[in-house]
Amino acid sequence: MTSEQTAADTLTALPTRTPLSADTLAAEPALPAADTTGGTLALPAAADSLLYGDSLFMAGFPPADSLAMDSPTVVPEPLYRPASAREVFGPLSLTVAPAPKIRTEPARPLTGNSYFETLVLALAAAYALLLYRHINDVRLLFYRVTHDRTSGERLMEESGGNNLVRFLKIASIIGLLFVGIAAVKYTETLLPVEMLPELPAEITGSLSLLFAGGWMAIVLFQWLLLTAAGAVTLSRHFMIQLRLLKRTYFALAVIVAAPPVLLFALCPPGTGRTWFYIAVAELAITAILCVRETLHLFISKKVPILHWFLYLCTVEIFPFSLLWLLAIR
């Protein structure tokens, strides 16, 4: 027997393997391959990476040994330590003292421009010139307000000549401009900076003229209303006296309240409230005197008190309340 025949007799035929279908492969769970060297099971690479923290997802988890042994988590020691500036920047570095804090002026979106300040200085010069050239008229004005005579006699006397009439007109114009700068300054003081609109300097400088124009509209409304009432009730002379009284006390308010208003307008933001309160007190006293004088005038002309109340509500209170409601909206 030859060697080839001996080998052929030794080999045995293996059973034929049948191929597995796709459903069979999906139903049977995949088992890890056996390690032929030690007999242990080798975990897949994905499970090994999750167990030993090789991924970002498991970076903060404890190692596998601690999980297996149910031991407490070992907190690693920090890899940093505090160091002084000399150790960081070198032994030749020097410590520099911090710079002092620079105090910046608060924002003034409405009054912090040359237009507004120029108008304030121009009004101050006009006020000083008014007092210098009409000092006698100022004395006569205080005399007409404070001298002891009946209200009817005081208001029926002559206006004092052309000088006093000119003085009342100039004082009225200056007073309107003072109302404008006081309104702008008070608006900036009352409202926070965040609520104020960001406008160019040319527009913010003309805001005082806009407020003055609003006051002028109120004066025009009162003049038209009094003229119409005088024409309807045939009391034109009485309405002339009433307008003269209003002009007189408005000029008085300008004379006494202009200095604190100027100082309040020139104060830095957040300051000068004392000057504002002084101006408000002076204006309130002047308004009370004006209201009392109008009451005496109505009584001297034998006009019912009810008409005086109607005059206050319609002519004096209504336009200012309407303007106030428009402003706060």
Topology:
Blueprint: H1 3-10, H2 22-27, H3 45-51, H4 64-69, H5 85-89, H6 114-133, H7 135-146, H8 151-156, H9 162-190, H10 201-205, H11 207-233, H12 236-266, H13 273-300, H14 305-328
How many E-type strands? Answer: 0
Percent helix, as a range, is 55-70%
On the 0-100 scale, what is the average pLDDT?
75
> Could you name the ranges where pLDDT drops below 50 across 5 or more consecutive residues?
1-14, 24-61
Structural class: mainly alpha
Task: Tell me, briefly, the overall form.
Answer: elongated
Q: Please, what is the oligomeric state?
A: single chain
Strand content: under 5%
> Count of helices?
14
Describe, in plain words, how this protein is organized in 3D.
- The protein is mainly α.
- The chain is 65% helix and 0% strand.
- The radius of gyration is 48 Å and the shape is elongated.
- Residues 1-14 and 24-61 have low confidence and may be disordered.
